Amino acid sequence: MSTSKLDSEQSLYVYMQEFRHQFVNQSSEERTSHIAQRINLCKQLRKAQIDAWSKKYRDGELMMEKILEFRNDIQLQNKRIEEKQNEVLQIFTRIKDNENEEADLAKHLQSLKDELNHKREIALANKRANRDRLKELQKSATMFKDRLGLEIRKLRGEKLQFVFRCINPKDPDQPFSCIISLNEQGDYEVTASDPPLDCLAEFQEKVRETKNFSGLLANLRKAFTTLVSQVK
Question: What is the pLDDT of residues 105-136, one digit of tens each?
């Protein structure tokens, strides 16, 4: 082997060794740097985790304090509720002792209330009916006004006064009157005639049976006429 070739092989070997050494050192440094980065990252993650756990622990302690406060409040409220329940139980016991009497009283009061309401409804209905019938009486009486000299006066208490004239031949303007009204039951009431007539009760009973108001007016006029003739 020639000397130049030998030198060339040695130079190549040296170059390869240097390249290998450089590559190994470079790879080792990169691995070391990578490992260091991973270690730092792990430390950061661990620190963040420790901080999070610490915060949770502090929050847990605060929560436990609040739970204890709530528990104490609940115990206090339960004690107060128990006291109130005992008071209510005592009151309920006293009420229960008289519940039969109170129930009977309540039923009686309700019965009276229902009866009163029923009577009020009947009274209102009768009042409305009486007003309508009085209006009809006024209309019916108007028919006799011109022919019989009849005058109608409305008095207090839903009463009507019927004044007859042209009865006494000596004094055609002499008034003969009678008061007619309706009671709460809707029945006619014939009262207070002037001059007085003995037959008012009979006329009242008849008009209640027949409901013939025109006949009542005719009978009253006839009775006043008879009374005048008897005076003669």
Answer: 788 889 888 888 888 887 677 677 667 766 76
Computed over its alpha carbons, how large is the radius of gyration of the chain? 60
Burial class (CB in 10 A: 0-12, 13-18, 19+), 134: middle
Query: What pLDDT shows up at residue 205?
Result: 96
> Could you read off the pLDDT of 194-219 as tens digits, one per residue?
999 999 999 999 999 999 988 999 99
In 3-state terms, the chain is what percent helix, strand and coil (to 5)? 75, 10, 10
Per-residue b or e along 210-220, where b marks 16 or more CB atoms closer than 10 Å to that residue's CB? eeebeebbebb
Q: What CA–CA distance (Å, rounded) separates 159 from 140?
A: 15
Residue 194 backbone dihedrals phi, psi, to 5 degrees: -140, 110
Residue 16: what residue type? M
Nearest to 126 by CA among 71, 187, 66, 194: 187
